[in-house]
């Protein structure tokens, strides 16, 4: 399902835009810094879905570009049978960020989707934007071009928010196999949440508007299906005609109103407000596989771009800055066997090699470290069992940690910039890596220390409930 939130630069205290959100998949999640890569002439990449997917299709090969961009992303191992590894987005070296968010198409379009559909799936599109786009608009054009040339493999409809320092676009990809999509531009004054992604009224009668994009047959197809009466010339509501018809869901209305109220203050919206918007238990619970907040500024060097990350729902961990210039992420935050699809039938034992898919895909060295995902999930369950008592104090702790990180992050950023401008880019990379890995591991240490304390308090104050109905704070979605 997932959640995305964009705030334009005119609504923020520091004058930069932000893109934030989380992925809603229950399978394993891991953090990656993918280096820039060169590809030989004629190279291809495989995209799409298999006959085993919830909405089946065929894998196909599309041309690869000569060079793909360095980027930070969170990957995960399963969703509706779409081939892994999957991603909901992240940030690339050019300052383009993307979030993938579910967006249901109308039932008739879902029914039209051919069982042999081909073309990139939702994760392919997010990854390709990270690998290729230098601006948000390029990302939109890339998605549109890929759908036009290769088709689109869907699971019932989807959307993306693609953003850079100057603007963002909400892109809705509709089911049905007819190449239907629409994009709406968000600007400096925008506050926009997606869950699900939506685009409402599209000004199809205005020949000079440039805030909406769609394919040439976008209106004609609706007319042919009897979903829009061109003769009456009324408003063309994309969500009502091609989507779920529900417009802005309750959670979207709530968080947009909350952020608009914060933006109306003299101090406007700051980084702590963005972290709150991804952490608030009104929206964030066990379904949130991780959290991201991306400041869309224009740093002096690409290595200084940063993505703030939690390995599970942000109620159970502090956000930590991950710099583009880091060489690697700590093993604890890489892929582990915990909740990884297919690992229940595999072994870290070569005696089983050659007997089918029986050897684990996770390196033994990585699996021998702590799993940040598992540790955070354990804490989340401890907190939620007695959230009335534990959640306020744990949230206050994370906010205190993040206040310190915001201060140290600025000093590290300045130090790395000085090193880069002195011709010591390698030393800057070492500094950023040392800082990032140290703070990510420190966050994990804090999670485990808090967990130990809450386990003791739970055992002696409340006991451990065996009620099959889990507890959590009231949530809108």
From TrEMBL:
Known EC number: 3.4.-.-
InterPro entries tied to this protein: Peptidase_C69
Catalyzed reactions: an L-aminoacyl-L-amino acid + H2O = 2 an L-alpha-amino acid
Superkingdom assignment: Bacteria
Enzyme class: hydrolase
Sorted UniProt keywords: Dipeptidase, Hydrolase, Protease
Family: Belongs to the peptidase C69 family.
Protein name, entry field: Dipeptidase
Gene source species: Labrys monachus
